[in-house]
Design brief:
The protein is of the alpha+beta class and 396 residues long. Helices cover 19% and strands 27% of the residues. It folds into 2 domains: 214 residues, Immunoglobulin-like (Sandwich); 106 residues, Sandwich (Immunoglobulin-like). The chain is built from 8 helices and 17 strands. The structure holds heme C. Heme C binds next to helix 5 and helix 7.
Length: 396
Amino acid sequence: MKKIANLALALGVLSVGSLMADASIKAYKAENLSTITLDAKAWQSAKEQSIIFYPQTTIEMNDIDVVKLNAENKAKKVSIKSLSDGENIAFLLKWQDGTKSVQESDSSTSYGDGFAVQFPITLDKLPYIGMGSEGRGVVVHLQKATGKTYEPNGNQDVFHQVNASNQNVYEADAKKYKDEVAKIGNTDYQRVYLAEGFRSMTQIRDSSENAMMEMKYDKGFWSGMIVRKLKSENLDLSLGHFPIAFALWDGEKKNRDGMKLLSSWVEVKVEGKGGKSLIALEELSGDAKNGEKVMLENCAACHQYKEVKTAPNFMAPNLSNIGGYSNSSYLLESIVDPSAVVVPGYNTTAHPNFPWYSVDDKGIRSSTMPSFSHLDEKSLTDLVAYLKTLKVEVQK
Ligand code: HEC
């Protein structure tokens, strides 16, 4: 880390003359969004934009079916509209999904469709795309399609409350519970989390990060809406220029937890606000062909990607889709300073022989990947350009 002491600087140096505009979302001006709904007329004034979501291939789960389904997954084009009234920001996602999957509370084999949106808390360094990273937190809003649930105390334990009094009336209690749920339950499984990496997810139960969320399935398409304040206890997006990232779960493909489709960080620009983004979301453009060579020489011993499978399974993250859900700045950082963000979710059960990191007495994780900051600038830029090409095709 001597040669490139500071990543922002490194990006600055590397990007001279090689900047490409990355995808961004414009938030169109609107009036009072505090009561907007998914079907509201107001959405007509926002232009449809599209963002591609890629299947997460960094880690794998123990469930073989999921691994198989995930390997067959294509990328998905999602239509996104955005509105802002200066105080609130609203997003409307629309994506194709041939099957409406709704998770029922009494089933552990069916999974619900869902979507999530994440916002960075720190605006000077990009958080890790999967739920943030240490010192770079995110606020995550999640909605899943579920059957009716009823949890007046927020503890998801109504069944136990109804049932606890007397084991002998179990049947009757169960019926009573189900009737009650059918009558007054709702289908809005919504959560908001603060996270600094997957290990440190905390659900926010007070109203400090309130959002209105809504999901609706119609003729083969899901729509999902979220509306929230630009400024809150944890976030300040009032500059009007900030990164956002999205995720989708497809219940039919047994998507759950980290098994999902992910966008990279994309920039939101609120109409009428001139603020400059503090995070570099620009893409580097280098010579991907040369980058491919650099990659084979330096990286293929540990990482699998596309048809290159010389490394043992999951000795290191599979990079087959890394270009789809990562930004150039993250990729460059991963190469020159691997321990800056240590990828979470490493599956010790499935791959006990290849630890991805070591942990010191203070609990700080260091990556087993060596730094490649000794590579010259051209090799680094070319490498990043090649990594950006690693992604599966979009579903037709
Ligand atoms: C000695 C094995 C090893 C070598 C060689 C290696 N890596 Fe890694 N790499 C890892 C491990 C282990 C991780 C996961 C821990 C972490 O986050 O650093 C990782 C993480 C990454 C990540 C983050 C992945 C994600 O899903 O976010 C990227 C990108 C990456 N490596 C790229 C490279 C590139 C490019 C090279 C070659 C210049 C390379 N690696 C060489 C072991 C290696």
